[in-house]
Amino acid sequence: MSAPVAPVAAARTASPVAAEAPRRRTRGRRSARVKLVIGGTIVTAYVLAALLAPWIAPDDPLKQHIVDLLHGPSSTYLLGTDAVGRDEVSRLLYAARIDLPVAALVTVLPCLLGTALGVVCGYVGGWLDAVVMRISDLLQAFPMYVLMIVLVFSLGPGLRSLLISFTLVGWVVYARLVRIEVLRIREAEYITAAVTAGFRTPRIIVRHVLPNTLRQTVIYLTSDLVFAVTALAAFSFLGFGIQEPTPEWGNMIAGADPYMAQHPLLTIVPGLVITVLALGFAFLGDGLQDRKEQ
Amino acid sequence: MNGRFGFVARRFVSLVPLTLGVLLLTMLLLSLAPGDPARMVAGPRAPQSQVVAVAHQLGLDQPVWQRYLDYVGHVVTGNLGTSFKTGQSVAGQLMDQLPLTLALAGFGVLLALVLTVPLAVAAARRPDGPVDHAVRLLAVFGIGLPTFWVAIMAIRLIALPTGWFPVAGLGDTLSSHVSAFVLPSVVVALSILAPMVRSLRATMIELHEAEFVLAARTLGFGGGSLLRRFQIRNAISPLVAVTAAQAGYALFGTVVVEVAFTLPGMGQGLVVAARTQDFPLVQGYVVVFAALVVALYLLADVVTAVVDPRVRIAA
User: To bridge B194 with a disulfide, which of B3, B99, B139, B232 should be the other Cys (CB 3.0-4.6 Å)?
Assistant: First the structure.
């Protein structure tokens, strides 16, 4: 679909309406920056909320005010209290201290495992590559969540199961992504140069191959965080996630759902909190992707 | 072998090792579960001799490879075992629940497709124009919305106040069956829509700039006929690929949506089986879900081969 004789650089940006291309590119660059700023601001705000929760939260997230069950919003309880009388705002803030690090872990662990396997498979190849790729075919035949539910079923609900199941399921995409990048990089002249210079394979992998795969991995990792944030909440909703009384946005929604008629904010606000954070990561991922394409 | 049937037949054969692997992995994963299944069936206060008898009866005293072969044999003949809790046939229960889940996922995917095509075509018509920006923003939102929360909101904010749709379950009459599917299907569709729109939009923009489209334009094709005869036709293969991937995702969407709307499908069944530690039942669900995904990919390959001759020739 691209012109056979066009120089590489020109072919990338050339469009039939050539005059439009530069304008579109600057506009694209600006929209990439806007996305990065919006995403960065949202994520920074959440991280700050998590870090400062003990100081800015008005109340102990576990303290039950027995006389104020399902209390409406007031000056004492900004968003009211839940079914056992706990302050909603404090629980939302403290939940950030659970949801953010857990979301980060369930994304970074598969990324590390997948990157390691992808680099080795792509660079070394051979039977190891064949075995790992067949295993990843197999894992992709399962609907991801079904596999996760089964793992959590096998290992029991809670943090440990979440970490293990996300890692065992999530590494596949990273491994494939990195492997393809490595196959491309392996043919590059600077790798041939490094091999000719007599550098040992581990050094070439760590110093020359790995850094060049990072960009693509980081882009995927950012959009994977969107999935992690919503999936963690979904697991809580199904009863396989972080368990009560630990405040977590997903289990807050599940716990408040039966009382939606009396106190709708308890269900609506944690959902919005999850959505906005997911949007933050989505904007960051999009911005990084757009910037890479230019 | 060649032609359409040869291509499909070869794809079919290649699924055999995949299916065997799926069964092996299912068994291995479930063997991670703590506790002795025989003890669970016999009951916590049963004497050790009875537990041993149950283990023998369930074939748990056999070596792993023997159990695997037995299991494969049973699955091939349609026997998925019996539930620990109810003693009923797993295959029977799954067959009862399968139609609902398939219908829900199917309606969801169809609805998503119906929404994807006009949105993506409209957005691609003028890249970076106002419509394009609106569609892309919607797509970002679509990715960030937690499906189960959307389902809860749909129940509380639409189904309850209007009374147009049943709040839970299917109801008894045909019309209540139909209306019970509306909101869940919409939620499933929304959960898979965004990546489909993004993908088709990107394809359409690429096609706008393709040389054969430029050639067609030079020959005087324009507007609708250019779109239909040159662009949409060439966009079908990538659309089928992303739809297949998203349909697999929709199967999970149905788990959450069925739980939220308390619909008696496989998704809700899986969650209940996992909560009650019903080992053979969970195993059955996993096998059937995996089989559905494998079948889905096969279907996608077949559709692609039918609409796009290049795929057949390349394979």
Answer: B139
The DSSP call for residue B55 is H
| Structural domains counted in chain A | 1
Structural domain boundaries enclosing A91:
54-293
Most B CBs within 10 Å, among A26, A232, A237, A259, to test the B interface: A237
According to the model, what pLDDT value does residue B205 have? 85
The answer as to whether A279 is a domain residue is yes
Q: What is the DSSP string of B98-160?
A: HHHHHHHHHHHHHHHHHHHHHHHHHHHHSTTSHHHHHHHHHHHHHHHS-HHHHHHHIIIIIIH
Residue at A141 is within a domain = yes
Would A36 be classed as within a structural domain? no
Here the tokens at position A3 are 């012109």
B284, closest residue in chain A (CA to CA): A150
Q: How many Å from the N-terminal Cα to the C-terminal Cα in chain B?
A: 12
| CATH number of residue A147's parent domain | 1.10.3720.10
Q: What is the pLDDT along chain A (294 residues), one digit of tens a residue?
A: 333 333 333 333 334 444 445 555 666 677 788 889 999 999 999 999 999 989 988 878 888 877 777 777 877 777 788 777 788 888 999 999 999 999 999 999 999 999 999 998 988 888 999 999 888 888 877 777 778 888 877 787 788 888 988 998 889 999 999 999 898 888 888 888 888 888 888 888 888 888 888 888 988 898 889 989 998 988 888 888 888 888 999 989 988 888 887 888 888 999 999 999 999 999 998 888 888 776
Backbone conformation region of residue A128, classed left if phi is above 0, alpha if psi is from -120 to 50, else beta? alpha
Closest by Cα among B199, B304, B183, B201 to B246: B199
Q: Do A154 and B141 touch (CB under 8 A)?
A: no
**Rounded distance between C-alpha atoms, residue B235 and residue B199, angstroms:** 10
- Considering only CB atoms, A260 lies closest to which of B22, B30, B156, namely B156
Q: Rounded distance, CA B254 to CA B265, Å?
A: 8
Model ipTM value: 0.81
In a domain, A94, yes or no: yes
Interchain CB distance below 8 Å, A151 and B32:
yes
Distance between alpha carbon A150 and the CA centroid of its chain, in Å? 21
> Which chain A residue is nearest to residue B139, measuring alpha carbons?
A282
